Amino acid sequence: MNAIETTRKPDWLKKKIDLAKCLDLHRLFGQLELNTVCKEAHCPNISECFSAKVATFLILGNICTRKCRFCAVKKGIPQPIDSNEPQRLAEAVKKLGLKHVVITSVTRDDLADGGAEAFVQNIKGLKFLNPGLKVEVLVPDFQGDARLIKRVIQAGCDIFAHNIETVPELYSQVRADSDYQRSLKVLKTAKEIDCNIYVKSGIMLGLGETEKQLSEVLTAIKKTGCDFLSIGQYLAPSKSHYPVKEFIHPDKFVFYKQKAEELGFTHVESGAYVRSSYLASEYL
């Protein structure tokens, strides 16, 4: 793959964001003081999802304790935990009439439980509101603590997700505060705790990985027992973030989807604009 920074987007990566389609949800989330990863991470699908009244909720504030170079979420000292956030999130889900909700968070290494209890309270609150609601959580690594992973799973989520993001050879450059083997352990531990829960992961392409490296990672993810996989194109949020090394051709995404399916993943979404929570309800 090309190791030189790429700045000019090809034709298949010129998706337009229509902010006019986002106003209603921006207003609702502003009134309820809720964060979304759609906004904080500068997701290119925001107008598509918001116009369909779909969003991925970001709990535990909007400031992350880690400094991943690919992510647009603010870094620094996080805010105190908001104990009323689960009630407001439940209100938003009710108003939107969602049948499938995705909850993620910033990484909170400053908290003894890494924010696990906040996930528990949000899951329980939503399930109390609507027992038939499908709840997907996209969690940080909780420092690999199996007890915290177990607490989140036993709260009743339907999909437990944790993203690998990139190949291990790039971790020191892209997400230096994280650990590849620890992230694999999170996926494996989740499946061992509850073999019936759906486990999901995601990876970005275009960071400088090779096809061989990627193939090895896909195999490693599947060996954890992971069921679902998302594969998307990395797009740098700004010039100060980690640069894009290659824009992956759509045909290559089809190729990697086939490779992942051959490995045994139950459902794979693979494409330039695929993100870990994009088309989330389709996995079930």
Structural account:
The strands form two sheets. This protein has an eight-stranded mixed beta sheet with strand order 1-2-5-6-7-8-9-10. Helix 4 (85-96) packs across helix 5 (116-129), helix 5 runs parallel beside helix 6 and helix 9 packs parallel to helix 10 (250-263). The protein has helices spanning 23-31, 37-40, 46-51, 85-96, 116-129, 146-154, 171-174, 180-193, 211-223, 250-263; strands at 35-36, 56-59, 63-64, 74-75, 100-105, 134-138, 159-161, 198-205, 228-233, 267-270. The protein has a single domain, classed as Aldolase class I (TIM Barrel). The radius of gyration is 18 Å and the shape is globular. With 284 residues, it is of the alpha/beta class.
Helices and strands, with pairings:
Layout: H1 23-31, E1 35-36, H2 37-40, H3 46-51, E2 56-59, E3 63-64, E4 74-75, H4 85-96, E5 100-105, H5 116-129, E6 134-138, H6 146-154, E7 159-161, H7 171-174, H8 180-193, E8 198-205, H9 211-223, E9 228-233, H10 250-263, E10 267-270
Parallel strand pairs: 2-5, 3-4, 5-6, 6-7, 7-8, 8-9, 9-10
Antiparallel strand pairs: 1-2
